[in-house]
Amino acid sequence: MIAGCGTDTTQSSVVQPPVGGSGGGSGGTGGAAAPDPFAAAPTCTSGLTWTRNNHGSPDMNPGRACLACHATDHGPSLTIAGTVYPTAHEPDLCDGADGAAGILITIVGADGQAVTLTPNEAGNFDSAAEVALPYQAKVSYMGRERAMDVKQTSGDCNGCHTQTGTNSAPGRILRP
């Protein structure tokens, strides 16, 4: 379930069931429904926290609003950026889900052009590619996906996908 900032605050989400099971896209087995990941208590699943301030690393400041910071602190110009997490209410600066395990973020612009991104070891992803607005986004992992139904106009994904969620986002960008 990815909701978020953009053009409309009313949305629904599409979560495809995992291969070989059912239940909310979080990995149910034997037909049992998986627990609601957005009902889980806040936690830093990785146990790793970024402590080096703004030092130009692609691993920096997971969970924080990337584009807003880059605009005010003269960082590289980005069009899309955010952090993917294994649970829905991870705190800022906690490392997210490592993309080396096969997580993909797909952004499809209004012109039909797609940009596919892989999160780094801190769960951060970013792109400077031009994206025709409004765009749609989805996160894929192991045959499952979480897709935004509502088209978006802001590429600052963590601006809405905060620990508690803002602007109708239910919480963090969540690995399916």
What is this structure, in a nutshell?
The chain has one helix spanning 66-72; strands at 13-15, 80-85, 104-108, 114-117, 124-127, 136-141, 144-148, 173-174.
Description of the molecule:
The protein is mainly beta and 176 residues long. The chain has one domain. 4% of the residues lie in helices and 20% in strands. The protein contains one helix and eight strands. The chain has one helix spanning 66-72, and strands at 13-15, 80-85, 104-108, 114-117, 124-127, 136-141, 144-148, 173-174. The chain has a five-stranded antiparallel β-sheet with strand order 1-7-6-3-4, with no helix packed on it. A hairpin with a 5-residue loop joins strand 3 and strand 4 (114-117). The N and C termini lie close together (8 Å).
Radius of gyration computed on alpha carbons: 15 Å
**N/C terminus separation:** 8 Å
Shape: globular
Strand segment count? 8
Residue stretches low in confidence (pLDDT < 50, at least 5 long) are 6-29
Number of folding domains?
A: 1
**Order of strands in the sheet with the most strands?**
1-7-6-3-4
SSE-based structural type: mainly beta
- Secondary-structure element string: EHEEEEEEE
Helix content: under 10%
Specify the number of helices: 1
Main sheet properties: 5 strands, antiparallel
Which percent range describes the beta-strand content? Answer: 15-25%
Average pLDDT reading? 84
